[in-house]
Protein: Protein kinase domain-containing protein
Organism: Blepharisma stoltei
Amino acid sequence: MKPNKKCPISWKIIEPFVEKIQDEKKYGFRISQGIVKRHFYVKSLTELDDWLDRLSRVAIMTDIKNDFDFKSLLGTGSYSYVYLATDLENGQEYAIKCIPKYQLQSIEHFSALINEIEIMKSLDHPRIIKIHKIYESPHHVHLVLDYAQGGDLFQRIGTNGPITEKKAIILIKNLLNVIEYLNSKNIVHRDIKLQNIFMVSKNNDTEIKLGDFGLSCINTEKLTQICGSPGFTAPEILKRDIYGSKVDVFSVGIVLFMLLTGKTPWSAKNKKELVLQNRDCKVPFAEALSSQNSREMIKLVKKLMMPNPNSRPSASQILRSRYLREAEDSIRPRRRSQSVCGSILYEKNNDQGNKDNNEESKFVENNQKGATDRHAKFESVLRLLYESKRWETESKNCWGL
């Protein structure tokens, strides 16, 4: 049987209800948008649950606590909180992003949230955080998202330090495949960084999901808006040039650099210095990478981080390029003398074999003290990146440019 009338329900609110007339219960739901409301009745509670399950995938639900048990706070952002929650029906774990409505104080904030939701709903890729449901209450908007058990890549590198070239190349290929998919959908992420790359599990360093599409947009020929995260932003954005999808490739280059070294390419002491160094993009690759990594891997990092977007390849070009292929072919184990956050482990050489234990212990102790100092410096630089809020503004003052 064909319906008498069709009605789009995207962005409309769904509210279930139960009416008791004498001894009989009637089950149903209302679809509302503004002051317009339509009521629909079903035959049973089971049928109502089925309708609500289907409608929740495309419309907005109202009472999230009827469906999810909130367990713990996973993290906070500039405008939101993220909680770990369990689906009361099947026990599945999700990350729920909670946006207080008082944070949405302008049309621009509302538009940005709607843009984020619409873009995420349009995406379907195994390495992208998926949005499952949307809830709205009088005071909050909740987004039900995939939960990545391994935390984010920033936490992983901060805890474990650099990863091997073999793991790095696998992770970067996974990330480039995601960007290639976004390019096919004509979408630019504009905020690729360690904190927005989520680890699927606690024990795997290469399986990832890209998340946080709050700054993403449809690619046009006239993108000029300054946005992103200082330290990961492509130079053309900071120079206020017209830019496109290759800005995401530059950010991947920064990610690869940090995967291999455990540190940022910049030596900034404050946000203003960070932005200026990021814009000028003068990176001492030879000093930072040559003693640790293969020449082919260094070439790949340089290619991804080309300051000139006209010389920088697209994600598709890199995936099919000799740079990636040669980097894969040249993979070799990391030197045993490297460890977390650039600290130095003492490794006795043959010509030191006759030294007594006291001298050896003193040498190790001194190096451990130096390693602690270097670790503190590493933490301070990464913390600057972590605490730098994303800026999405046309104001030069916010960037110090």
